[in-house]
Amino acid sequence: MTAVNLLDFDLDGLAAWCAGLGEKRFRAVQLFRWIHQKGERDFERMSDLARSLREKLAARCEVRPLVPISEHRSADGTVKWLFDVGGGNAIETVFIPEDDRGTLCISSQAGCAVGCRFCSTGHQGFSRNLSTGEILGQLWHAEHALRRQLALPAGERAITNVVMMGMGEPLQNYAALVPALKVMRDDHGYGLSRRRVTVSTSGMTRLIDRLREDCPVALAVSLHAANNPLRDALVPLNRKHDLADLMQACHRYLERAPRDFITFEYCMLDGVNDGLEQARELIDLVNGRGPAAVPGLRIPCKVNLIPFNPFPASGLKRSPRDRVTAFARELQDAGLVTTIRKTRGDDIDAACGQLAGEVSDRTNARERLQRRREVIPIHADPAHGVRA
Known about the structure:
10-stranded mixed sheet, 12 helices
C-alpha cells in the first residue's frame, strides 16, 4: 500500500483524514503545524502527539517532499532548485531575496500547454499537472532549507511572498492549486496574507471567477498586448478568452475587495509590443476605451514591465532599455502605476520566462509552435507599430 503524503492536504482535508483514524480536529492542527511550521517529517519527533497517533501515522502516511536534483545560486542571491517529479519530468523553483522580502516562484505543472510565444517553458510542451503535495513540496523544501542555511531564529520565515509564476498555467491545475493556496494562507501553515500570495494566469476567465469564490489571493494577468490580433499571436488562449472577456473577469475579481488591484504582466518584446502606440492601447484598455475594451469598465491595476529573456526558438528579442523607459513613462503620465522588473538570476537561467526543467512532452509543442510561427508571423514596422 502506498503511504499517504500528508503534503497533499489542506487543514480541512487533513482533519477529515485524521477523523478517519478516530482523531479529533485539534490533533490535525497539531500535526499540520509540525509539518508546515516546523518542517518535521519524523512522527516520533512530534512530541505533543499521543504515542498511539504517532504509531498510526507511521503505519499509514509520510511527509514526502520533493527531491532536489540540483541547487544553483546566482551572484545576486537568487536560488534555483530543480526537483525530480518522476516520469522523466523535473520542475524548477526560484527564490528571490530582496531587502524587505523573500519571494518564492513556484511551478504548478510539468511543462505548460498554453504555448505563449515568449515563454521557454511553453516551448518544451506539457507532461502533466502537479499534485497539491508537489506544489507545496517546493515551498516546504525551500522554506526549511533556507531557514537552516540562513540560520534564522525560531519563528522567523525565510519566505514572505509566494508567486505562482513558475512552470505551467496555475488555473489549468485548479483542483490541486486551491488546497495548496489554502495551506499557504492558513495561520497554522505558512500564515501568508492574501496579498502575499499571487496567482498568475494567462487569462482563464471562468476559473478566475472560481478563484475569487474559493480562495481569493492577489491576481496577476499575463497580458503582453492590448489588442486582440497581437495577443492572439503571443498568448494563444486569447482566441478563447479575448481581452473584453478578460477585463470583465478582472473587474468581477475585484468586486469583493475594492481596495485590491490586478497586476498586468507585460513582457517587453523588441519591435513587437513596445511602441508608444501599444502603450496608448494599454492605457485605453484598462480605462474602458478602445476597440478591445468593455466601454466604461476601468480596472484598478499596476503594470509590471518585464525584460524579455531571449531563447533561440522564440524568434524574439529584448526591447532596448530606452524604449522600455519611454513605454513606462507614457503609462505613468497617464496615471498608471508602473514598475520595470529587475532581472534576477540571469546567470543561472532563473529569470522570468526562462524556467524549463525537463519535461516528457505529450503535446508535440515544438512542432505546434513552429507551425504557429509560420501561420501567424510577428514582425515590427520601422516605427515599432507591430502587426501580427
